[in-house]
Amino acid sequence: MIPWSKNNRACTTTWSTLLILDQISAPFVDSSVIKMQEFTFWNHASSSDMRRILATTLAIQMDNIFIMIRGAQYETGITKETVTSGIAGLLTDGDKTVNDLADLNDSNYVFWTGDNTHEN
Fold first, then answer.
1. Degrees (nearest 5) of the Cα angle 81, 117, 18?
2. Cβ-proximal residues to 21 (8 Å cutoff; 6+ apart), any chain
3. Cα(30)–Cα(63) distance, rounded to whole angstroms?
4. Count of CB atoms within 10 A of residue 70's CB?
5. Could you tell me which of 7, 5, 40, 9 has the C-alpha nearest to residue 107?
6. Are the beta carbons of 90 and 101 closer than 8 angstroms?
């Protein structure tokens, strides 16, 4: 697992995107240990099917922000379908943390390529 660090684009981009989407409100330093079941989309009374639908919607929103706004690119061999399915799967595991999500995102996206076309 990647270390939670303000110097890691996967961590900072995951955290800021969750803030934008109103899923968490904690400062960066406190966010790595927040569990999926603490996100605002998570409703303990929801069925697992409903939770999966909400998680899929959130995964698509995150992907859109990463790609369209933050200039991320998919790692080689990764597609929108595989990445959103993977994120949704992680989001439906209530014990996974924001750090787990950042780790998954780090393996699926290139958040910084070092050229001016992908500044975040």
1. 50
2. 58, 61, 62, 65
3. 23
4. 19
5. 9
6. yes
> What are 98's two structure tokens?
């924001």
Q: Which two tokens stand for residue 5?
A: 């660090």
- pTM for this prediction: 0.92
Q: Please tell me the number of Cα atoms within 13 Å of 96 on its side-chain side.
A: 18
The number of C-alpha atoms within 13 Å of 60 and in the hemisphere containing its C-beta is 7
pLDDT tens, N- to C-terminus, the chain (120 residues):
889 999 999 999 999 999 999 999 999 999 999 999 999 999 999 999 999 999 999 999 999 999 999 999 999 999 999 999 999 999 999 999 999 999 999 999 999 755 444 333
Dihedral of CA atoms 10, 67, 51, 4 in degrees, nearest 10, equals: 10
Give me the pLDDT at residue 112, please.
Answer: 79
- In 3D, which of 110, 116, 91, 115 has the Cα closest to residue 13? 110
| Residue 63, amino acid | D
